[in-house]
Amino acid sequence: xxxxxxCFMSTGHPVLVSAGPLPELTMRAASEGLARVCxxxxxCHGIGEPPQMVLSRAESSAQLIRISxxxxxxxxxxxxxxxxxxxxxxxxxxxxxxxxxxxxxGAAAAYTALCRQLGVSLIGLVQVQGxxxxxxxxxxxxxxxxxxAPEGHPEREQGxxxxxxxxxxxxxxxxxxxx
Length: 179
What we know:
This protein is α/β, with parallel strands linked by helices. The protein has a single domain, classed as Rossmann fold, CATH 3.40.50.300. The protein contains seven helices and six strands. Strands 2-3-1-4-5-6 form a six-stranded parallel β-sheet, with helices on both faces. α4 (107-118) links the parallel β4 and β5 (121-128). The longest helix is centred in the first third of the chain and has 15 residues, at 24-38.
């Protein structure tokens, strides 16, 4: 079981973005697994699409959104996806690819810092693949919320279910009522 020290309950439906290089098939499998356990549709968009237009259409929909590509890259129309996500106050999960031994790239810390600088509503980081090393995750001081184990790993479904609990808005929030 994965136990993390940082907890967040989402107030909206999160946008899933990668923090550094994450193979498309890996991100797709993690995103689809999360959408399945959340029982929510998954919309996929690329960084080439205009973020303001995509986010305005998805503002009140109960769905997960996955952004493929580098969300910090400047868009031809100006700004980046991360800036747009901050402007729209959309909660964000950063998916971080890990080495087999559980090591994570420095991009995890860099993207976390960029999100903080831009004012992104960062739920936290999710380690995708690799092995979970709780000691390393605590030591790096980043806001880790979960681990999605590789497909076929006995802890994959449990990790997806725990992450879904953390990000799924309460029924009152979904209905627009106060809790």
